[in-house]
Amino acid sequence: VNPRKSITSPAQQVVVSQSGVHQRLDNYLIRMWKGVPRSHIYRLIREGQVRVNGSRSRVHRKLVTGDIIRLPPIRTAPKEPILVPEEFPALRERALYEDDSLLIIDKPAGVAVHGGSGLP
Fold it and tell me: Which N-terminal stretch is annotated as signal sequence (predicted)?
């Protein structure tokens, strides 16, 4: 396995603090494991790989202070930086104004400004 392709965290135990009280187990793990797909988190809980106080648990379990959550090893892909060429001719042609802190671009309608799942 190429170490640059994925990172595996070791199994660990987490003690629920006051900030996690009354949270559902699934929501607690979703906040803790940013970048791990929800479907993967739900599968780990369903398969019993995530344990609370040594026992299998369900996703809707409400946590209390002092609960000990056993977290299995998780493999995640490292975020790769997005490389943009310094000189992007199409962008340079559309620049109306540019200084050290501001760039104004004549953007055509329908062209996305932000990435997201709802974009074509």
Answer: none
